Structure formats: C-alpha cells, structure tokens
Description:
Blueprint: H1 2-13, E1 22-25, E2 51-58, E3 61-66, E4 69-73, E5 78-82, H2 89-98, H3 106-125
Antiparallel strand pairs: 1-2, 1-5, 2-3, 3-4
Amino acid sequence: MENLSEAYKLMQKNCGIKVGDTVKILRRAESKEMGWSAVWMDEMDDLVGELGVVSVLYDYGIDVTTNGDSWCFPFFILEKLKSAPPPDKKDEILNQFANTDLGWSGRAIIEGVKMILDYVDEKTNA
Length: 126
C-alpha cells in the first residue's frame, strides 16, 4: 500500500491541476482507489457532475469548493475546465501549510491562516 500511496502523490503532483482551477467532478471514487488515501463520503455523490474551484492541494487529494462546501477528491475524477490566474502570495502560503503534516487539526489551521491573510488583504487594500 505504501508504494501505491507514493505513486498517487506523484501522479497528482503531475496532473496539471492547480489552486484556483475550475474543475468538473466526473464520477464517484472508491475509498482508497488508486492510492488515494482519503475516504469517499455518501454526501459527495450529489456533487458528481458539478463544477467547483480548487481551493487546496494536499498530498492525499484535492480540495474542491462547490456549492459553498469543500470536499477532498482524488485528482483522477476531476476534469480541469479552466486554469486559474497565476497564484498570489496568499495561495503560496496556504499551499505550504496544506503540504505540512498538521495532523487532524490541519484544516482548522489552514482556515485560520486563510482568515488572517484575508484580513490583511482587506486592511492593505482599504
């Protein structure tokens, strides 16, 4: 399983999907399929066929925001429809956090950092 997980990471890294890209969720994935280490939740079935925007790239999957919620999908069920504009500094910082082993609280930490960066952006551009 270790080799399959490493293969997944390498393939995702080279799939061409970046933060901010618009993607289509093509199909349901099986939990642990092709080395994807996340779990498919039944609620994700309703998102098949939907469009979303890539919000975070993790080693173990791609966070896609659609209908106001974010879910972690494997790269191989996503079709890139539109490329994102070049990343800004905020996106670079968030991706650095996303690829750091922060344990189970990682998503909360990333959301907190995102809120701080949004606040700084707002104050800087005011």
